[in-house]
Design goal:
Elements lengths: L2 E5 L3 H12 L4 E4 L9 H4 L17 E5 L3 H13 L7 E4 L9 H27 L10 H19 L5 H22 L1
Parallel strand pairs: 1-2, 3-4
Antiparallel strand pairs: 1-3
Length: 185
C-alpha cells in the first residue's frame, strides 16, 4: 500500500495534500508530537489522522512507504499546481530507519541536512580558489593554502564526514585564502 505520513505541515496544506493524494491512490495521514517516541514502522500502521500539533520538530516532513519516485513527482507537481508546493523534506522508510523513533529519524535527517549544507559551502570555497595565483603569495602562505585545499578536497571525497570536521576545514580554508584575496583585489 502506498502511504505518506505528514509532520509539521499546517492544517490547510495538509488537508489539500490529502485530498490530492486520494486521486493518486496514496493514503496520507497527519502525525503529531505524540508520535515522537513511536517507531517509524509502527507509525505506518496508522490509518487515521492525529492532531496536528508539531511543536517539537522543526520543518515539514513527508515520510513515504511504497510510493515510487514517479508517484512522488506527480504528487509534488499536483501540490504546486494547486498553489501549495511542498517545500519540506521527503524521507523514505528503510529497513534501518523503520526501527528508529520518529524523534530520532527527524534528528538524523536534520544532521544529514546540516552536513550537506556544510559540504556544499566547502565545495563552493574550493571552486572559488580556482583563480588564485599561488606564485604571487609568500611561500608559507602558499603552502598553507595548498594544505587547506588538499584537506578540503579529501574531505569532500570521504564518505564519513562529520559537521565539526567540515566546519574546521572551511575555517582553515577561509583563513588560508585571506592573503590570496588581498592579491586578487
Amino acid at each position: 500500500m502506498k502511504k505518506i505520513l505528514l509532520y509539521g505541515i499546517n492544517e490547510i496544506d495538509a488537508d489539500l495534500y490529502q485530498n490530492i493524494a486520494i486521486g493518486y491512490d496514496v493514503a496520507m495521514y497527519i502525525l503529531s508530537d505524540t508520535c515522537m517516541p513511536v517507531l517509524v514502522r509502527d507509525l505506518f500502521e496508522l490509518n487515521d489522522d492525529l492532531d496536528n500539533m508539531h511543536a517539537e520538530g522543526e520543518g515539514e516532513y513527508m515520510l513515504m512507504d511504497g510510493v515510487s519516485s514517479e508517484d512522488l513527482i506527480r504528487l509534488l507537481k499536483a501540490f504546486e499546481e494547486a498553489g501549495r508546493p511542498f517545500d519540506g523534506t521527503v524521507i523514505v522508510r528503510t529497513r534501518v530507519n523503520e526501527n528508529w523513533t520518529l524523534a530520532r529519524l527527524l534528528d538524523e535527517v536534520r544532521k544529514e541536512h546540516d552536513l550537506m549544507e556544510k559540504l556544499n559551502e566547502l565545495d563552493e570555497l574550493l571552486q572559488d580558489c580556482n583563480g588564485i595565483d599561488l606564485s604571487a603569495m609568500d611561500a608559507s602562505d602558499s603552502t598553507e593554502l595548498k594544505a587547506a585545499l588538499l584537506e578540503g578536497y579529501l574531505l569532500l571525497k570521504d564518505d564519513q564526514q562529520e559537521v565539526l570536521e567540515v566546519d574546521e576545514a572551511i575555517r582553515r580554508l577561509r583563513k588560508a585564502m585571506e592573503p590570496a584575496v588581498k592579491i586578487v583585489h
